[in-house]
Write a structure and sequence with these properties.
heterotrimer; A mainly alpha (about 625); B mainly alpha (about 130); C alpha/beta (about 350); B: Fumarate Reductase Iron-sulfur Protein, Chain B, domain 2; globular; C: about 350 residues; alpha/beta; FAD/NAD(P)-binding domain; 2 domains; 20 strands; elongated
Chain lengths: ~625, ~130, ~350
């Protein structure tokens, strides 16, 4: 038994720790209660309904797998995983085992947290007593060593991020730096304090006993006695400082990841406009920086302060600026890698909504000029919506016409003579409500013409048709899906050229809507498909995204040139894509010729091309560029 | 008020020196490449909104660059931000950034007395 | 062999350089990628601003080259040039030793298919200015189904001053070509209306502005200031074009039977391999960068033995290219024979 009061287990040095704990829990509870209370009623209802379902069990499982074991990071980077694991699991075990140790020794179920945190100080003799029973001291030493190995890695990461396989690591705020400094001190301080106590009392297990004896040997018993209490003070102060700084640092994610996982499993994710659910997501970010490496703005355009991690940081602290909110391709490459599964695109978008609503008042007569307009042509159960960008591509428009003709399809052309934008580009600027007007116009137009299938060549349009239009009785498909259906139904016959083709997954089509297989199935009937190094959900963005409101064309070109090189490296003859925007961006930056899937299909039609064309003028030269 | 391109302008000279150039300068700072506009009219020709309603994005930005802001709010509301103009601009101007920037500028208080919309001269001051 | 000067390209500039060098007692060897001499001039009909048939310029040159006994190698594509100007490498690896090199490799025409919105290669009656020259040579400018066009539109700056196809430079000669071709169509079919869609009219040469004015006053060619944004076919087989009449400030739609795209001059694709092998600099536009824009515009550097003539360095007209042939020849001669730099 230590010299201090054994009944209350009190010594003044526990005060910083205790105050810190109280402060931390007060803040965390206050925040969660507030955020939960601010959720829309529908979300709260969903929460209540889901609480006692299997979804909760799944959430618990994910909490263990992710919050404690960090399995996602393991897949991305094993060393980084070990570092996170040692902190998360190690600290968790230190608390749990410490609690058991204390309760078992004191034979009481409940005692204040500082008792087990500073247990070794109050009961330095305990380890020997327990040798006969369960060796808690050994476990506690093992866990401490485990954590300290993580601390060492963290120090190393600060020095040399690249050693951990990360090209870029995150920058910190003041709260982060305070918490980080404290965190770095906490465990070495614990080791020092426990070593001092164990050295004085000649107790401890393999770690603390050894370090304690070594320490005693080095400084002598008197000096060791003098430094014991200061060491525990440092430990307590470091803990207290960490707990106070924690709510204002990225370490808030330690707790917030838990409710975030539950809410995700309950399908409560927030929407197009900022809401309370966003808080859980934003604060669940550990700022691990995994989102930085896949960002092409960083790798191709040397923009290093706009990635999701910085965006979330700025948004969390109310420091978000237009250049950060606007500068994102929303390609979703980071989202697929985020170990915490934060809806990064949705958060970026709804931050724009908040900003746009402040800047742009929505007037009643916005787009009133569209009232009564109908420029569509033709009739048919199948509708075709080219989209603004496709309208600029004569080859794609002609190819679609030829394919429809070859399949004998009666088509209603929604926008051949100029249509109304699908609304997604406007929505991406944050003007969600104004975009709704455009959507309402198009929706009414589609319904008026009685189509049952809507085909579009533009993945941007496709995404908004599927996610925001709520078209009853109209199936919306991408032209790649439509072609595959025609082929499978035997309505189109293609002649394979045997050429080697490579395929670029447009962001909105692939990561955005999960359509990866149909374009490839179509291409497989045209030639040999050569997959690039980064493909499908890891495919690169062309750089021309309408979601970005900052890039100039030189920057766009740099991103596109980088990406185009990946396709050229496949050795393919042609780069095929399925988005008019990607095609346009790649065309001026690609060494390979670029074509849309529709062009590739039309060119391979077994109907002779001349059947649809008037013979060329006599004096016409075939290929002007050959001269 | 200046009509944005669909009737011949009223015979009023642009009082360049008397005009307020705050927004003009802010716009050009945000989208410097706008200075390189050669006025080819491709943006206006291809404009999705312009297919339905008198809307001239080329003239809109040129007027702003002369410090002429009358009716700007109302005009900007016509744009669908579809980005077709950006795809055809031979100078590579980020026209969508231009529109978004102008909308934000309108929401900021600037020197008093700039009529941004008929009957709503105080719009700028309020926001 | 002694006094050998390799001339890359047998267009007007290359031939003129060869003739000058021959006269100076040197041994010029013309290396021409195609199977005939003459370059682009072979495909033009009549030349601005005088309506001189291209043959009247070309034939005397060909005659002179033949008469002077200048060595010509056809089908000889040059792949590399020695940085010291002491020879070139031909496709296939053959090396030709020389004492100096004149790069007169010319330009490529812009591939109009890259401007998808105009539908070249898709819509039959969208043609390029080069196609139109071929038609002029046959004295027939007809639509794909053999009709005389009632209205022809001519679009300037296709593949010039256009960031979207990475051709930022002005090709210079298209403006005057557009005016010339408009007038020629009016001469051929007085009933046919001709509209030129332009951004700026750059009438840079002697007599150019005069014929521009003549096209307006006498030939009644209509010049509309606006770039065509897109073309679509109409049900009756015509073309509908969208533009903005920027002088009025209103969008404009117009139908025509034929659209002529005034395709610009692009740097020749061989520029890159020549530049890399010969340690020559290319300008931002991709044309060769001469030593300076005044006294050194046919030289590659202070003491180099590689010289430029014609459109290898920038878009030029025929006369300018001929002059540069002579200038480059003199520079090459002096570099071999010695003598102070001028």
């Amino acid at each position: 038994m230590h010299t201090s009061d054994m009944n209350t287990h009190f010594d003044p040095f526990v005060i910083p720790f205790t105050l810190g704990v109280i402060y931390l829990f007060a803040v965390v509870v206050w925040r969660y209660v507030k955020w939960f209370a601010e959720l829309p009623e529908a979300d709260r209802r969903a929460f209540r309904h889901a609480l006692f379902t299997v979804r909760s069990l799944k959430a618990v499982r994910e909490v263990v797998e992710e919050a404690l074991l960090h399995k996602s990071i393991l897949r991305v980077n094993p060393l980084l995983w070990y570092m996170h694991l040692s902190f998360a699991l190690g600290w968790f075990l230190l608390i749990v085992i410490g609690k058991f140790e204390t309760s078992a020794y004191l034979k009481e179920a409940f005692n204040p947290p500082h008792v087990h945190v500073f247990f070794r100080y109050f009961y330095p003799e305990e380890p020997f007593r327990f040798h006969r029973g369960f060796n808690y001291a050994f476990l506690m030493d093992a866990v401490l060593l485990f954590i300290l190995s993580g601390v060492a890695l963290a120090w190393f990461k600060r020095l040399r991020a690249s050693w951990l396989g990360m090209k870029k690591t995150t920058k910190h705020t003041r709260g982060d730096r305070m918490a980080l400094a404290a965190l770095w001190v906490v465990f070495p301080a614990r080791l020092l304090a426990e070593s001092a106590t164990c050295g004085i009392h000649q107790t401890g297990d393999f770690l603390t006993h050894s370090t304690g004896m070594a320490l005693a040997g080095m400084v002598g018993p008197d000096a060791l006695r003098m430094m014991e209490l200061p060491a525990w003070w440092i430990y307590s102060l470091a803990l207290g400082m960490f707990f106070v700084a924690m709510p204002y640092s990225r370490y808030m994610h330690i707790f917030t990841e838990v409710p975030h996982i539950f809410l995700r499993h309950y399908g409560i994710r927030g929407g197009d406009k900022p809401g309370s659910a966003d808080n859980f997501q934003i604060q669940a970010c550990s700022r691990c920086g995994v989102c930085i490496d896949p960002c092409q703005l960083q790798s191709a355009a040397a923009m290093n302060d706009v990635q999701s991690v910085y965006f979330l940081r700025d948004r969390r602290y109310g420091l978000l600026t237009d250049p950060v909110a606007d500068n994102c391709l929303m390609c979703g490459r980071c989202e697929t890698r985020c170990p915490v599964h934060i809806d990064l695109n949705r958060l970026r978008l709804n931050s724009r909504t908040a900003r746009a609503e402040k800047a742009v008042p929505l007037t009643d007569d916005r787009y009133a000029y569209l009232r009564g307009e109908d420029r569509s042509e033709g009739t048919g159960k199948v509708g075709y919506f080219a989209g603004c960008m496709t309208l600029l591509s004569a080859p794609v428009m002609t190819a679609m016409q030829r394919i429809f003709d070859a399949a004998g399809e009666e088509v209603w052309w929604a926008d051949k003579a100029g249509g109304v934008c699908c609304g997604r580009p406007l929505k991406l600027s944050g003007e969600t409500d104004a975009a709704r007007r455009l959507m309402d116009y198009n929706k009414a137009l589609f319904e008026k013409h009685g189509i049952t299938t809507l085909v579009t060549s533009c993945p941007i349009c496709l995404k908004v048709f599927r996610e925001d239009y709520h078209l009853e009785g109209i199936e919306v498909i991408h032209h790649s899906q439509y072609f595959l259906r025609l082929l499978e139904a035997g309505r189109l016959k293609l002649k394979a050229s045997g050429a080697t083709l490579t395929y670029h997954d447009p962001c909105e089509l692939g990561r955005g809507l999960g359509i990866y297989d149909e374009p490839r199935a179509v291409l497989a009937r045209l030639g040999t498909l050569a997959e690039p190094k980064q493909t499908k959900k890891h495919a690169l963005c062309c750089g021309g995204s309408v979601a970005n409101f900052v890039l100039n064309s030189q920057q766009e070109n740099r991103i596109a040139t980088d990406a185009a090189a990946v396709y050229a490296a496949t050795g393919a003859e042609t780069l095929v894509t399925a988005c008019p925007q990607c095609k346009s961006t790649f065309r001026r930056n690609s060494a390979l010729p670029v074509s849309d899937l529709a062009e590739a299909v039309a060119a391979a039609l077994e109907v002779p091309a001349s059947a649809h064309r008037i013979p060329a003028a006599a004096g016409r030269t075939a290929a002007p560029a050959a001269s | 008020m200046v009509d944005w391109g669909y009737t011949i302008n009223k015979p009023r000279a642009i009082a360049y020196d008397a005009n307020d150039h705050t927004w003009e300068n802010a716009l050009q700072e945000a989208v410097p490449v706008l200075r390189s506009c050669i006025g080819c009219g491709n943006c206006t020709a291809t404009c999705t909104a312009g297919n339905f309603v008198p809307f001239n994005i080329r003239k809109l930005q040129t007027l702003v660059r002369r410090g002429e802001y009358a009716g700007l709010r109302k005009e900007l509301d016509k744009c669908m931000l579809c980005g077709k103009c950006r795809l055809v601009c031979p100078r590579g101007i980020n026209t969508r950034k231009m529109i978004v920037t102008l909308k934000r500028l309108l929401a900021q208080p600037v020197a008093a007395g700039i009529p941004v919309a008929p009957g709503a001269a105080s719009t700028a001051g309020q926001r | 062999m002694e006094n050998t000067i390799a001339i890359i390209g047998g267009g007007v500039a290359g031939m003129q350089a060869a003739l000058t060098l021959k006269e100076l007692g040197m041994r010029p060897v013309i290396l021409e990628r195609e199977e005939r001499l003459g370059g682009k001039l072979n495909t033009w009909d009549r030349l601005f601003p005088t309506w001189t048939p291209a043959r009247e310029v070309l034939d005397p040159l060909l005659e002179a080259v033949r008469g002077a006994g200048i060595e010509v190698r056809l089908g000889a594509a040059v792949e590399g040039v020695s940085p010291d100007g002491r020879g070139v490498t031909l496709a296939g690896g053959e090396r030709l030793a020389a004492e100096a090199v004149v790069v007169a490799s010319g330009f490529d025409l812009f591939d109009a298919r890259l401007k998808e919105e105009y539908g070249y290669g898709i819509y039959d009656n969208v043609i390029t200015s080069a196609d139109l020259e071929t038609m002029f040579r046959e004295k027939r400018v007809l639509t794909a189904d053999g009709r005389v066009p009632r209205r022809v539109a001519i679009l300037h700056c296709v593949g010039s001053r256009d960031e979207k196809v990475k051709q930022n430079h002005c090709s210079r000669v298209c403006c005057i070509t557009g005016v010339k071709q408009a007038m020629e169509i009016r001469e051929l079919y007085p009933e046919c209306e001709v509209f030129n869609f332009y951004m700026d009219m750059r009438m840079f040469g002697p007599g150019y502005e005069e014929i521009y004015r003549q096209s307006q006053e006498e030939y009644k060619v209509v010049h509309i200031r606006g770039r065509i944004s897109e073309v679509s076919p109409t049900l009756d087989g015509r073309l509908q074009m969208k533009t903005e009449d920027t002088l009025i400030g209103r969008p404009m739609k117009m139908e025509a039977d034929m659209l002529v795209l005034l395709v610009g001059m692009c740097p020749a694709r061989s520029n890159r391999s020549l530049a890399v092998s010969g340690n020559l600099s290319l300008g931002d536009s991709g044309f060769f960068a001469a030593a300076d824009a005044f006294r050194g515009n046919t030289r590659c550097g202070e003491n180099g033995r590689i010289f430029f003539a014609g459109t290898a360095t920038a878009p030029k007209n025929v006369g300018e290219s001929l002059n540069e042939g002579t200038a480059a020849a003199w520079q090459a001669y002096r570099s071999v024979k010695g003598g102070a730099s001028w």
